[in-house]
Amino acid sequence: MERIISFCIDHNILKEGIYLNRVDKDVFTYDLRFKAPNKGDYLHTASMHTIEHLFATVVRNSDFKDKVVYFGPMGCRTGFYLLLFDAPDVSKVKEMVINCLEKCLELDTIPGSKKIECGNYRSHNLKNAKEELVKYLSILKDGNIEKTN
Ligand SMILES: [Zn+2]
After folding, report:
1. How many angstroms separate the alpha carbon of residue 73 from the centre of ligand 1?
2. pLDDT of residue 105
3. How confident is the model at residue 146 (pLDDT cuts 50, 70, 90)?
4. What average pLDDT score do residues 98-126 get?
5. How far is the CA of 116 from the centre of ligand 1 (A)?
6. Residues facing residue 19 across a β-bridge
7. pLDDT by residue (tens digit) across 13-64?
8. Which residues surround ligand 1, an ion (CB under 5 A)?
9. Is pLDDT of 145 > 60?
10. Domain 5-147 maps to which CATH number in 3.30.710.10, 3.40.50.20, 3.90.45.10, 3.30.1360.80?
11. Beta-ladder partners of 72
C-alpha cells in the first residue's frame, strides 16, 4: 500500500503551528498542530473532545462556514485537521483560525454536549480545553506558519 501524505511528513522535526498538509482537488487539509509530536505532551481525550465541539461550532458559524468540510481530532492527540473547500491562502486561514480560537474562549458552555447530541457526553473538560486553546493561540500569534509539502 502507498504511504499516505500525512505519514510522509517528518514528525521528528514538526513543531506546533498551522500547516497546509495536503490538497485533494479543491479540498485543502490544514494541520492544526497543538503539540510537537512524540514529546510526551499530548492533549487529553476529554479536552480534545471539548475543543472539537467548540471549534466545529464556531467555525461553522464563521465567515468561512461555506468553506468548511470537516474539523476533527488526530488519533495521536497532538492536534486537529481542518478541511476547507477552496482555501489556498494559508495566512487568511491562520487569521480565521485565530478569530475562531478567540470566540471558543468566550463560550462558557459546550455546544452539543447533551446525551442526545453526543456519542460520549460525559467525556468533556471545558477548563482544560480552554487552557489548551490559550496555549495554541499564543503559538499561532508567535507566527509559526509553514507548508509541509
Ligand atoms: Zn461529542
Report:
1. 11
2. 98
3. low
4. 97
5. 10
6. 31, 146
7. 889 999 999 999 999 999 999 999 999 999 999 999 999 999 999 999 999 9
8. 118
9. no
10. 3.30.1360.80
11. 81
33 CA to centre of ligand 1 in angstroms: 20
pLDDT in tens, 64-78: 999 999 999 999 999
Q: How far apart are CA 144 and CA 119, in angstroms?
A: 34
Q: Which three cell numbers stand for residue 94?
A: 491562520
Show the cell assigned to 82. Answer: 481542518
What sign has the CA pseudo-torsion 19, 68, 70, 133? positive
Cα(117) to ligand 1 centroid in Å equals 7
| Residue 149 in grid coordinates | 509539502
Q: Is-contact 118 112, C-beta < 8 A? A: yes
Cell numbers describing residue 35: 503539540
Residue 34 vs residues 67, 73, 122: alpha-carbon distances, Å: 22, 11, 23
The identity of residue 86, as a single letter, is D
Q: Give this prediction's pTM.
A: 0.91
Distance CA 104, CA 145 (A): 21
**What residue segments make up the domains of the chain, in order of their start?**
5-147
Question: Which grid cell is 62?
Answer: 464563521
